[in-house]
């Protein structure tokens, strides 16, 4: 019964993420024909209702439209930053695992120092260096997520490099680079792919947090963290302005985490 419930939860989470992706692709034609930047002073702070299912904000913009369009930015930053961190983490972690012990030790001490700090703090430091802006937000959250991928890639490399087929390839005189690309890297992808799925949620939260602090895109860009920030002073008067972006952030992060954990259990051969 417990395994069945978890299976249903994983399915619901996957369906929700699929709906978010579909909304990103077809929003202008199906989900909402309205312009997310269009203002209407006659519709200021309208509560949720017919015509405006999520209500309107302080300038009369449709909150539902802005939330739907905001998915493109927020999810795009999450996926893009995670993918970049994954690729760089695989390269650096593999090289560290194959490097001489001294180089590997120095590299991993640096990674361990970074892992001692929360990812959001590292992202804030990166933004302080790079400066605010949408591209720099994606870069900052990617840099913050990088140490975890390096550590896992390096650990998997240390295990795989001692496998019999790798030793056989080296004995046959196969070039070390070819051994790494053909045998070592493919065997690190499964655990890293699972971590990356969960990591998408973490990067979405980090990017939204930076935008909430005013370090990301600026108004009128429809981004979830920015929408949440715009409605924080209206909670007593118009709760819906901040409520719906906050709910979407929460559901997306939870869904990505649930799907990632289900993938991890499947990779470990567990059914529940």
Automatic annotation (TrEMBL):
<keyword id="KW-0813">Transport</keyword>
<feature type="transmembrane region" description="Helical">
    <location>
        <begin position="237"/>
        <end position="260"/>
    </location>
</feature>
<keyword id="KW-0812">Transmembrane</keyword>
<comment type="similarity">
    <text>Belongs to the binding-protein-dependent transport system permease family.</text>
</comment>
<feature type="transmembrane region" description="Helical">
    <location>
        <begin position="111"/>
        <end position="129"/>
    </location>
</feature>
<protein>
    <submittedName>
        <fullName>Peptide/nickel transport system permease protein</fullName>
    </submittedName>
</protein>
<feature type="transmembrane region" description="Helical">
    <location>
        <begin position="73"/>
        <end position="99"/>
    </location>
</feature>
<feature type="domain" description="ABC transmembrane type-1">
    <location>
        <begin position="71"/>
        <end position="260"/>
    </location>
</feature>
<feature type="transmembrane region" description="Helical">
    <location>
        <begin position="135"/>
        <end position="152"/>
    </location>
</feature>
<dbReference type="Pfam" id="PF00528">
    <property type="entry name" value="BPD_transp_1"/>
</dbReference>
<dbReference type="InterPro" id="IPR000515">
    <property type="entry name" value="MetI-like"/>
</dbReference>
<dbReference type="GO" id="GO:0005886">
    <property type="term" value="C:plasma membrane"/>
</dbReference>
<feature type="transmembrane region" description="Helical">
    <location>
        <begin position="192"/>
        <end position="217"/>
    </location>
</feature>
<keyword id="KW-0472">Membrane</keyword>
<dbReference type="GO" id="GO:0055085">
    <property type="term" value="P:transmembrane transport"/>
</dbReference>
<dbReference type="InterPro" id="IPR035906">
    <property type="entry name" value="MetI-like_sf"/>
</dbReference>
<dbReference type="InterPro" id="IPR050366">
    <property type="entry name" value="BP-dependent_transpt_permease"/>
</dbReference>
<keyword id="KW-1003">Cell membrane</keyword>
<keyword id="KW-1133">Transmembrane helix</keyword>
């Amino acid at each position: 019964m417990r395994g069945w419930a978890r299976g249903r939860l994983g399915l619901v989470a996957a369906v929700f993420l699929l709906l978010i992706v579909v909304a990103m692709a077809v929003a202008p034609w199906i989900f909402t024909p309205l312009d997310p930047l269009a203002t209407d002073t006659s519709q200021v702070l309208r509560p949720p209702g017919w015509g405006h299912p999520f209500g309107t904000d302080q300038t009369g913009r449709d909150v539902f439209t802005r939330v739907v369009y905001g998915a493109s930015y927020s999810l795009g930053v999450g996926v893009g930053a995670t993918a970049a961190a994954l690729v760089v983490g695989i390269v650096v972690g593999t090289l560290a695992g194959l490097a001489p012990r001294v180089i590997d030790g120095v590299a991993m001490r640096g990674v361990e120092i970074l892992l001692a700090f929360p990812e959001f703090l590292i992202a804030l430091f990166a933004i302080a260096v790079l400066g605010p802006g949408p591209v720099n937000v994606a870069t900052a959250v990617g840099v913050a997520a990088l140490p975890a991928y390096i550590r896992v890639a390096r650990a998997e490399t240390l295990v795989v490099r001692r496998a019999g087929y790798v030793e056989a390839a080296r004995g046959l005189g196969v070039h070390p680079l070819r051994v790494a690309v053909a045998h070592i890297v493919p065997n690190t992808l499964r655990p890293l792919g699972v971590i990356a799925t969960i990591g998408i949620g973490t990067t979405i939260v980090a990017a939204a947090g930076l935008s909430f602090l005013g370090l990301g895109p600026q108004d009128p860009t429809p981004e979830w963290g920015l929408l949440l920030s715009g409605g924080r002073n209206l909670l007593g008067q118009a709760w819906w302005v901040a409520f719906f972006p906050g709910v979407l952030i929460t559901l997306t992060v939870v869904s990505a985490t649930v799907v990632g954990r289900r993938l991890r259990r499947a990779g470990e051969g567990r059914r529940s």
